[in-house]
């Protein structure tokens, strides 16, 4: 087999196989194949995994995506990232099965709401947030890789809302994965809590921690820092630092672009942003060859990203609660992947920049890099009143309901709209945030049929104190039953 560096190689009978590998943004961790990156999550040097080279699609290949079913676009966009580590027919089957479970035939319908402005609905998965588009596939990828290796893992997460239910829903049918999800007791919405606690699977454990979301995150970090615990339970994470999640999110940027004029003309996107995972996937699409006019990054009052794009300096402040809780984040972990590109893929420079950020609370990579970022990204901040106003405006004009996160994205789309067709990403179903929707519009959205009886289902949840020893011993006791420890 003739191997071209990090890219395409020609296999037997002239078929193309790819051997893409992954490097850490901090340059000091082992270079890994796709399956190891999937299971590792974070790199051992504290960095995030990124492809060694960006695979490219030609303009003809992108144009040929027009009119294809979502799953077919997904296979074509993601195949180069698998690097031949999963047989092509198995991968195709997983992708088809994943998106067959979504409740709209278009999977991610793109709807024109006014001239030149579209909404892409990314809430047709089982838990009604865009995270399903990646996590439903990641669950299947975990299962496949772990079965092939005869291994088990324990996924431990902390959630203030959407991540928890999407991760649980992704792992609930696996006999290779145990999942423990921590949430702050009494501090997540009832819909969000019930979406987690009403899953009756033997491998799913909900833990209500007597504390705040920050306490849950601190517990998670402490468990990661406890090497013996991590090894004994074979702990891994499914937060958005996992490369496979970014990979699966690249797909819908291509899928939408070819419906609204791409690749013949550049398309703009507006993305309600927290951890920068979703919008980084859009950036990855540009690196694969998709012409993009710009990304409007929408934030709520937690506006660290708009402040960076305005000033060139990233400074963290306190998190404030808003109507769009999944974006109540100060430090956007995936931003490191963009920093790696802006610093010309110099891992040592990224490590120094990120250490400086942790120690001094300021990230500054220089005016030239900031200007380069600003050519593609703009930041837009909307407080709760502006979010409600946007929800009302869409409802008045079209009769459509939109959730508060999507409304932040739509407001950003209007603020950034130029000549290019603009696609705003609607990241959650309005029924996930019925109180905010009702407050804005007077209409209370109903849950879709598969969740209609959510409030009648039995909940399964253990309450534990905000205490590392208590949480670790609970997890040890329950993983021991599965032979993982
Ligand atoms: C997670 C989430 C976001 C933020 O996405 P990032 O990838 O963290 O930027 C936005 N909207 C909703 C509904 C979410 O669940």
Gyration radius, in Å: 21 Å
Tell me what portion of residues adopts beta-strand conformation.
Answer: 15-25%
Shape: globular
User: Distance between the terminal alpha carbons, to the nearest Å?
Assistant: 40 Å
For the biggest sheet, the summary is: 6 strands, mixed
Structure description:
The chain is of the alpha/beta class. Helix content is 43%, strand content 16%. It is built from 19 helices and 18 strands. The strands form five sheets. Strands 6-7-17-12-13-16 form a six-stranded mixed beta sheet, sandwiched between helices. Strands 11-8-9-10-18 form a five-stranded parallel beta sheet, sandwiched between helices. Strands 1-2-3 form a three-stranded antiparallel beta sheet. Helix 10 crosses helix 11. The radius of gyration is 21 Å and the shape is globular.
């Amino acid at each position: 087999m003739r191997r071209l560096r990090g890219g395409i190689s020609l296999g037997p009978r002239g078929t193309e196989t790819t051997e893409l590998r992954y490097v850490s943004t901090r340059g000091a961790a082992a270079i890994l194949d796709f399956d190891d990156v999937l299971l590792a999550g974070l790199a051992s040097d504290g960095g995030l995994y990124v492809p060694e080279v960006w695979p490219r699609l030609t303009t003809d290949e992108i144009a040929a995506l027009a009119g294809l079913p979502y799953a077919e676009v997904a296979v074509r966009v993601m195949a180069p990232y698998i690097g031949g580590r999963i047989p092509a027919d198995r991968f195709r089957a997983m992708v088809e099965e994943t998106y067959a479970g979504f409740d709209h035939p278009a999977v991610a319908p793109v709807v024109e709401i006014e001239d030149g402005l579209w909404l892409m609905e990314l809430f047709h998965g089982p838990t009604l947030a865009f995270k399903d588009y990646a996590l439903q596939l990641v669950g299947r990828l975990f299962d496949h890789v772990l079965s092939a290796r005869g291994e088990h893992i324990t996924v431990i997460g902390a959630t203030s809302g959407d991540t928890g239910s999407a991760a649980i829903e992704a792992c609930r049918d696996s006999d290779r994965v145990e999942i423990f999800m921590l949430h702050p007791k009494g501090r997540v919405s009832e819909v969000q809590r019930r979406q987690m606690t009403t899953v009756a699977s033997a491998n799913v454990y909900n833990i209500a921690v007597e504390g705040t979301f920050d306490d849950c995150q601190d517990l998670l970090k402490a468990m990661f820092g406890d090497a013996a615990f991590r090894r004994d339970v074979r702990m891994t994470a499914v937060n958005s630092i996992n490369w496979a999640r970014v990979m699966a999110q690249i797909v819908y940027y291509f899928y939408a672009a070819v419906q609204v004029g791409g690749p013949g003309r550049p398309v703009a996107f507006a993305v309600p942003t927290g951890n920068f995972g979703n919008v980084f996937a859009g950036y990855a699409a540009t690196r694969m060859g998709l012409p993009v006019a710009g990304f409007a990054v929408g934030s709520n009052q937690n506006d660290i990203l708009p402040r960076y794009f305005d000033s060139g300096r990233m400074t963290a402040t306190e998190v404030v609660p808003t109507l769009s809780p999944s974006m109540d984040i100060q430090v956007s972990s995936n931003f490191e992947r963009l920093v790696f590109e802006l610093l010309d893929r110099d891992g040592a420079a990224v490590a120094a920049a990120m250490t400086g950020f942790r120690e001094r609370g300021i990230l500054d990579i220089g005016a030239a890099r900031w200007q380069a970022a600003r050519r593609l990204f703009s930041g837009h901040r909307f407080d709760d009143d502006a979010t409600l106003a946007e929800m009302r405006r869409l409802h008045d004009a079209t009769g459509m309901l939109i959730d508060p996160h999507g409304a932040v994205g739509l407001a950003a789309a209007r603020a950034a709209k130029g000549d290019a067709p603009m696609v705003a990403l609607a990241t959650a179903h309005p029924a996930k945030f019925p109180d905010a929707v009702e407050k804005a519009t007077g209409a209370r959205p109903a849950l879709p049929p598969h969740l209609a009886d959510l409030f009648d289902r039995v909940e399964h949840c253990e309450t534990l104190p905000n205490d590392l020893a208590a949480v670790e011993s609970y997890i040890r006791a329950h993983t021991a039953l599965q032979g993982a420890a």
